[in-house]
Amino acid sequence: MVKEFPLLPLEKILKDAGKETGADRVSESAVLELKNILLEMSEKIALNSVAAARHAKRVTVRREDVQMAVR
Questions:
Q1: What is the dihedral of CA 30, 34, 37, 41, to 10 degrees?
Q2: Can you give the pTM of this predicted structure?
Q3: Are 70 and 46 in contact (CB under 8 A)?
Q4: CA-based max dimension of the chain
Q5: Can you give the C-alpha Rg of the chain in angstroms?
Q6: What is the CB-side half-sphere exposure of residue 22 using CA atoms within 13 A?
Q7: Choosing a second label site near 70 at 20 to 30 A (CA), which of 16, 43, 44, 55?
Q8: In the Cβ-directed half-sphere of 27, how many Cα atoms lie within 13 Å?
Q9: Integer Cα distance of 39 and 32 in angstroms
Q10: Consecutive H or E run containing 9
C-alpha cells in the first residue's frame, strides 16, 4: 500500500483553516497526524468501495461505489 502523501498541501489546508479561527501556525506533528488520519480513512473507504463493486458483481470500482462507501 502506498503511504507516500505530500505534506505541503496538508499544511496549507490546516493553515487555511487556521486563518478563519486565528491560528496561523501549524506544527509538524499536526500535519503528520492529519496525514495518518486521512490515509486511514482513505484505506477504509477504498476497502468498502471494492466490497460494493464486488457485491454488484463488478471488477471495476465506480464513483457510486466510493460515494456509497463514504456514507
A1: 170
A2: 0.80
A3: no
A4: 50
A5: 16
A6: 0
A7: 16
A8: 3
A9: 11
A10: helix 7-21
Cell representation of residue 37: 488520519
Q: Tell me, what's the pLDDT at 22? A: 77
What SS3 state is found at 6?
coil
Q: Could you give the 3-state DSSP secondary structure of residue 23?
A: coil
CA dist 48 and 56 (Å) reads 12
Q: How many CA atoms lie within 13 A of 53 on its CB side?
A: 16
Residue 20 DSSP one-character state: H
Map out the domains of the chain as residue ranges: 7-70
Q: CB under 8 Å to 1, separation ≥6 — which residues?
A: 43
Tens digits of residue pLDDT in 16-60 = 888 777 777 899 999 999 999 999 999 999 999 999 999 999 999
